[in-house]
């Protein structure tokens, strides 16, 4: 299982590189632009994937080497990390292929929900096992970004299949924002305010705020303010969690 974590961590940047070069179809940004929503973040926000991939690869190699190979805490993390990495890698070509076969967007939605569930479980087990701070925050960063990406993906499915109004989106978008806020708050609580999770969530919300502040879509201004407000609430929750349990960051297992 430890080897699967390594291989799946390496698969993500490799598949992303192929996807950006159009091997599977239009790149993810091009496909996303076809279905504008009130939850889309500014393009620069997606650069966080570079950091996520880097930390995940580092984590994959680290957990499979040295005395850590026999650490039972990391054994409990491994299947969830492998699943989350593999599903993340699988989502990218599926989303590109959806440009020609829109029905695949439903598969994409299921895959990204699965990826979020796996990464949240991996990060939670890392926290429970008290692994080093950088390692648990690497997993938490991935989970934090997916916590928003799920709802961005869902919004685009709604627009692509016209499940709800594509011209008057504010009402149902507020519902998605509320659901996203609940997921962020609940997972953040479970992870005891890991900064990796919070940084990814706030980074994504800031990207939504920037993009929607400049968008001409009806309701975009209100969506920007809602995204900003959720970011403030998650930050406040994290500060409370850190004050409630300040010793977590100091407790680690041996690095070797």
TrEMBL record:
Record carries keyword Chaperone: no
Keyword terms: Membrane, Transmembrane, Transmembrane helix
Transmembrane segments: 40-61, 73-92, 104-127, 139-163, 169-187, 194-211, 217-241
Keyword Transmembrane helix in record: yes
Record protein name field: Uncharacterized protein
Organism: Agrilutibacter solisilvae
Lineage: Bacteria, Pseudomonadati, Pseudomonadota, Gammaproteobacteria, Lysobacterales
């Amino acid at each position: 299982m430890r080897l699967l974590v390594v291989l799946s961590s390496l698969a993500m940047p490799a598949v992303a590189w192929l996807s950006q070069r159009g091997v599977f179809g239009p790149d993810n940004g091009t496909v996303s632009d076809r279905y504008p929503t009130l939850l889309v973040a500014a393009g620069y926000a997606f650069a966080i994937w570079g950091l996520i991939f880097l930390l995940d690869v580092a984590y994959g190699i680290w957990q499979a080497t040295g005395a850590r190979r026999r650490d039972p805490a990391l054994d409990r993390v491994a299947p969830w990390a492998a699943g989350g990495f593999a599903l993340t890698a699988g989502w990218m070509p599926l989303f590109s292929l959806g440009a020609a076969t829109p029905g695949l967007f439903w598969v994409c939605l299921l895959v990204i929900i699965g990826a979020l569930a796996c990464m949240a479980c991996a990060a939670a087990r890392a926290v429970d096992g008290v692994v080093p701070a950088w390692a648990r925050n690497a997993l938490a960063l991935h989970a934090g970004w997916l916590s928003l990406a799920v709802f961005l993906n869902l919004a685009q499915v709604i627009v692509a299949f016209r499940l709800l109004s594509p011209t008057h989106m504010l009402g149902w978008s507020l519902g998605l924002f509320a659901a996203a806020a609940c997921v962020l708050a609940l997972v953040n609580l479970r992870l005891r305010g890991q900064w990796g999770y919070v940084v990814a969530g706030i980074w994504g919300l800031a990207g939504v705020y920037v993009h929607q502040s400049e968008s001409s879509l009806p309701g975009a201004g209100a969506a920007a303010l809602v995204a900003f407000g959720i970011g403030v609430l998650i930050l406040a929750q994290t500060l409370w969690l850190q004050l409630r349990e300040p010793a977590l960051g100091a407790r680690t297992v041996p690095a070797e």
